[in-house]
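Q: I have four molecules that I believe assemble together. Could you output structure tokens for the complex as a whole instead of separate predictions?
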Amino acid sequence: MLNISLIGAGRIGKLHAHHLMENADCKIVYVADAFEENAIALAADTGAKVVSAEEAISAKDVDAVIIASPTDTHSHYSHLALDAGKAIFCEKPIDLDLSRAKKIADHVGETNLPYMLGFNRRFDPSFMRLKEQLPLLGKLEQVLIVSRDPSPPPVSYIEHSGGLFKDMMIHDLDIARWLLPEEPTEIFAVGDCLVDPEIATAGDIDTAMVTLKTKSGIQCQIINSRRAAYGYDQRIEAFGEAGILKADNPTETTTTFMGKDGATGDKIMHFFLERYADAYRLQLNAFVDSVVNGSPAATTVDDGVKALRLAEAAKESLDAGKLVTI
Amino acid sequence: MLNISLIGAGRIGKLHAHHLMENADCKIVYVADAFEENAIALAADTGAKVVSAEEAISAKDVDAVIIASPTDTHSHYSHLALDAGKAIFCEKPIDLDLSRAKKIADHVGETNLPYMLGFNRRFDPSFMRLKEQLPLLGKLEQVLIVSRDPSPPPVSYIEHSGGLFKDMMIHDLDIARWLLPEEPTEIFAVGDCLVDPEIATAGDIDTAMVTLKTKSGIQCQIINSRRAAYGYDQRIEAFGEAGILKADNPTETTTTFMGKDGATGDKIMHFFLERYADAYRLQLNAFVDSVVNGSPAATTVDDGVKALRLAEAAKESLDAGKLVTI
Amino acid sequence: MLNISLIGAGRIGKLHAHHLMENADCKIVYVADAFEENAIALAADTGAKVVSAEEAISAKDVDAVIIASPTDTHSHYSHLALDAGKAIFCEKPIDLDLSRAKKIADHVGETNLPYMLGFNRRFDPSFMRLKEQLPLLGKLEQVLIVSRDPSPPPVSYIEHSGGLFKDMMIHDLDIARWLLPEEPTEIFAVGDCLVDPEIATAGDIDTAMVTLKTKSGIQCQIINSRRAAYGYDQRIEAFGEAGILKADNPTETTTTFMGKDGATGDKIMHFFLERYADAYRLQLNAFVDSVVNGSPAATTVDDGVKALRLAEAAKESLDAGKLVTI
Amino acid sequence: MLNISLIGAGRIGKLHAHHLMENADCKIVYVADAFEENAIALAADTGAKVVSAEEAISAKDVDAVIIASPTDTHSHYSHLALDAGKAIFCEKPIDLDLSRAKKIADHVGETNLPYMLGFNRRFDPSFMRLKEQLPLLGKLEQVLIVSRDPSPPPVSYIEHSGGLFKDMMIHDLDIARWLLPEEPTEIFAVGDCLVDPEIATAGDIDTAMVTLKTKSGIQCQIINSRRAAYGYDQRIEAFGEAGILKADNPTETTTTFMGKDGATGDKIMHFFLERYADAYRLQLNAFVDSVVNGSPAATTVDDGVKALRLAEAAKESLDAGKLVTI
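A: Yes, here they are, computed for all four components at once.
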């Protein structure tokens, strides 16, 4: 039985709590949140005790810490939990600053403690199946990742988000690394503000295309937009010598209508809580499993550092208008 | 807060318990099962108390009873719970015997207590959407219901099942009634044992086609098989003057492969626990809502009686080789 | 080089002429039509000579006769062409009267001349592929044929059509026979006039469901409507122990749109000239090939007689409300 | 009646001849081919006369010239035909050399004669429908063009092809220009030889990704491979503020099988003659129409020059590893 402290009782914190409660191998013992009423509400649901984040992390009877607090606290709580000798699950990104992220990675390396990063998309059943089936392709040659949000976050969020590459595309950069058999060594980016001029005013872009290349020449294309009228557009294509694998968007229902003007089908899932509902559950279970069984984390702190480095390189390429070597 | 007694702690009982626990408007107070260890295990998970079925039903602090015990006990527990003045959710079928089912219906009529029958498919999101969209068709003219199980139950089960029409097609007969704007008045059936000769030895069929007609001439076709190599085949088509609506089978993932021999896609959901996972959850919530808010049950005891009558008429048609008037 | 006389220069006659002109193994020598201007126009396009039907059939320099004239002339021209020793391609049906159709069959039997009947759907690439793949199913158990026209023909046509079963469903009855490994031995029909009351006034139905059974218990369902708002709905499903085969409707284009209300796709092909364009071409080529190479016709006069017998039995079942043995 | 000379009686020449013969508004009068036996064979089929290319172009009784001879003759025959005052349909590309292509464009400009370039994909029904429906998107923001051949041409062909950008991607560059509301102003390319090392030896690449940007920031991605195991992969996605349009690959049949391992569907069309069969026909009809009716050509010599300029810029970007301004 893994005793867990949950730091952060907001939307994602609650979702994690829900999945932990269904997992017979663990128990939420402490909940902490800067907004105490959040912590109190979640404690009531879970039977956990409300304490400060510091207490939750250092508590003797706790084995693992889930960090689901705001991004700018990830680094601080990660160091605390590592110092306290706990297993850690931390929401992505580790930190918006690459050097601070690297410090966490170094700290994890020194302590050799389990540290799993919340790249939830790796646990999407369709994406997992695509990855499992990669051997069907023989040699992999081209990857296409389409990733569009239904609508942009508030500009107030964007201002502190680290920008599209670090905040949004970082998921796709991680998926690219996860699928490619070798690290990307070159990156090129175009990007513009086409959706909302206020995003440009905030110094960011909302529409981007990024090309990655690996040493042996494998090509990977990422297509991002902060807004898709039709919902949360999350697709992958992997192409190789023997064929192509595609993971398409699931729809809300399978019901279609055909009338005199053609066919109509249902909407795709609206956003990440619906689309990645299974992925979030499978991810937390994977974390608990890996700690309980001492197996390696599915997504490591190193994955976080490398995705962040690619995001920074994409920004550099966008500014310079040229291919950047990583 | 609705206090609930759960009669039956087997597979379906556990599933219902799971959904009731997630519903903030109710609480499982008592659990009963002929196999006490089942009841004890489920009580441990839910915090309920293990008692006898009779105690669970008559308990003063209980508002509603969920009957998820074997079919041949449905009638007895229904009468007890009606006598005790409880709201009732009963798994389908009410009873394999039409006259006993009618007695329950009469009893419900006398007491005017809430009684909901577990025709879970009415809560499938794709089927619900199809029903919602029926007005798009204008006048409805033809309905097609395909319903195949992945594999037949043991012959020992079939012997006491009431036969394919009452055990399996009863769901489809209910869906037909749910979709049609008027009651079926004529029925015709063909059926044979094509899958497993032991089913014939047990006096049953495993493959059937049934045609229903309503007074105004609307036609409905039901296609059943006890075995489908590709999984749980559950589809509806509704056709009318302005077009056609189709609810197709969902697949496990959206991932496809295309190679030199064409395309391959994922399997459809394997069986009812996967396919109707959402439907079971929505169904229990609908029951709790209807009792709490005093609104009518989505599927009444009368629906159960009428579906059973159609199932008996189908058998009569099969035996006589002619259209039977209901 | 096969020299051909074409009897009938209407819509279907012109279509056949077009395909014959592209076939290097044959040549249209004579064209005949009761409306001479039709014959003159088609002769101009094909380089053929306009003559009377009788002359076209008896001409010494002609090897084969294509009968694409009105249904009530098929029988007469068939006998003439058999007497003249010609190979014959005749549009379906042979005759609306079963006894007259049998006389043609007898005549064909006596002369042993090539006689192919125009059941074009057997040449649809998707249906052909479904038939080729039937072995994938292992034992075949259930067949479903959906066949709906976009809109009913004029009532003046319906009055002389022989009725829905002989005029429209005869194609589906032929497809059923083509797919089933043994002859249907029992048939049941329901039918009504739901589309246009004038069709009822003309003594016909426009909406029907027919169930066929073979000796070993294989079930086949045919669903017909004279009107489908969404176009020409022509689908087959074949189900067996190892899975299911489906041939769906092709669409005009593959283009789809997804917006805030879901997805929209293109219409299906509007009617038989579009949907079965390939089938008509492949059918005529098959006829020319079979005559040139002395191989058996793909669809024989016997196929026509048997489909007609099923159509009559369907009518008998509809009238009697019971299963009819063939 | 448009009198036509056809220069080139190879595979594409024959295809064009076939479509011209079905068009009642034109007639092939002369055929020329460097391999006289090709010309003789096609003349026999069409009733045309075999002459030299020069005679065919200058013949007094000829209104229009179809140039379907090898690429390195396009320029020469174009100038001759312009001098002779003929309307011209020329296969793509005009010329592999940009300056020579521009000379043709200048010559066309001086003579003001009809000149249509064979960018057949603009006439694909699915692509045409996508273009027609672009207004559904509101503001267009991102375009994705996937274009893969089933297998690479012989290396001997590649050596004289002008390279992947001019030989293969030129079609996609044209489609990009056709769909975008303004000219691309920047281009970036990555490319490698991943399919066949001999292509690298011949100085070419076989796998490429190219990003285009327009002045207002619209992004367009082109993905190419010289080999796709699953056939001719030709797809477009157009994304904008109100949704997404997709034109997918048509399949050979609509027949699918579902068994215990999931679903299998048919192959996509194998290569351009199958996939673009309709497009080739519609293209020639459009040419004949435009000459007969004096309407502008659908694809002009200027389109050819601009696509060629983009192809050259893609090569420049590939070599320099940076965004190139056009």
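A: One point stands out. Chain D has a mean pLDDT of 96.
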